[in-house]
Write a structure and sequence with these properties.
By secondary structure, the chain is mainly alpha-helical. Helices cover 65% and strands 0% of the residues.
Amino acid sequence: MDLSFYKSSISEEIRDEGRLQGRIEDILVVLEARGFDVPDEIRDRVTSCDDPDLLRRWLTRAAVAPSVEEIFADKDA
């Protein structure tokens, strides 16, 4: 069985995209679970982000921040 596709750069890009999508969904689920109202502007900002490090920071903040504004404050983004 030829497994070369799974080691290819295209396969890696597909996995990376899946990780980004998962992180985006995680952020939105945490915000919803915490009862935050997520304005369209914030939802668009999250869903259009392609920086995995920034998404990780937002997810971490989403778990503990007292407000949506605090999560997305331009401290480092």
